[in-house]
C-alpha cells in the first residue's frame, strides 16, 4: 500500500519529470554538437543502471581526463537525459564525460543511489580506456542530490567501511578521485529538513525513510559532512546565496577546511540570478561564470 509520503513523492516526481521532459529539448538543443555520444550503456542489470558517454575531439587519444556526473532531482526525479546539456558543457573542456542514471526513491530508497554510484564507478574504471579516457585521472561532479552522491563516494574511497555499511564490497581496482565539482548540493541530512527549500522534507524522507529512528541512522551514514577525511581530493563548491540550500554548501566548506581539505568556493551574491538549478540555463551569467571557474579549477589540477 502506498503511503501518504510516497504518494506526495510520486506526484512531485511526475510533475518535475513532465516539466523536464518538456523543457530539456530546448535546454539541451545543440549541446552535443561536435561531441561523440554513446547512450544508455548498462553498468548493471536494473533499468535505471545506465549511463551516457560524451567524448570531445582530442589531440591525445586515450589520455582524456575522466569526469563522472551524477544528476540532481531530490533523489526521486530527473535523469541523465535532462542533464545532457550540462554534461556536454563539461565535456567540451576536454573531458571524457560519463553522465550517470541511478535508481530513484521512493521505489528504491537509501542506499540504492550510493550502491549504484559504486557499481557505475567500477564499470567506468574498467571501461574508460576503451573510449579514450585515462582511468587514473577521474573527477566527480554532481548537482543537488547528485552532489551528495559524488561527495559521499569520494569520502568512502578513503573509508571502505562505508561501502560495507551500504551493502557493497567497495571499489574494485585502484580507483582514485582527483577532484570534486559540486553544485548546490545537500551535505547534511540532519539539518537539511530545516532548509527553506521546496519539498525538501519529502525529498529527504523519501530517500532515507520517514520513521524518525531510521531517518536518524541513515542520515548519519548518508551525510558527506560527517564522512570527511583529510585525504579527500580538492573540492570546488558552487551555489547562489539566495538558494535555499546555500547553508549546506557553506557548512560543508567550513568542515572541509577544518579537516585540512583544499576547498575552493564560488558563492554567488544575492543580486546574481543563481537560483537552484541555474546550471541548466546556459545563457545565464551565473551558469557561464560557474563553468569558467570550474574549468580553471580543473586546469589547476596538475594530476589531470
Jot down its keywords.
38% helix; Rossmann fold; alpha/beta; 304 residues; globular; 17% strand
Give the CA-based shape: globular
Biggest sheet: strands, sense, closure? 8 strands, mixed
Q: What is the string of SSEs from the N terminus onward?
A: HEEEHEHEHHEHHHEHEH
Q: What name does CATH use for the topology?
A: Rossmann fold
Q: What is the number of domains? A: 1
Distance between the termini: 50 Å
What is the number of helical segments per DSSP (H or I, 4+ residues)? Answer: 10
Which band does the percent of strand residues land in? 15-25%
State Rg. 18 Å
Mean pLDDT: 95
CATH architecture: 3-Layer(aba) Sandwich
Outline:
This protein is 38% helix and 17% strand.
What does the model show?
It contains 10 helices and 8 strands. The protein is an alpha/beta fold. The chain has a single domain, classed as Alpha/Beta hydrolase fold, catalytic domain (Rossmann fold, 3-Layer(aba) Sandwich), CATH 3.40.50. An 8-stranded mixed sheet has the order 1-2-4-3-5-6-7-8, sandwiched between helices. The radius of gyration is 18 Å and the shape is globular.
Could you outline the blueprint of secondary structure elements for this entry?
Blueprint: H1 4-27, E1 36-42, E2 50-55, E3 64-70, H2 84-91, E4 96-100, H3 112-127, E5 133-143, H4 145-156, H5 161-165, E6 179-183, H6 189-192, H7 200-208, H8 212-222, E7 235-240, H9 246-258, E8 263-268, H10 285-299
Helix pairs in contact: 1-7, 3-4
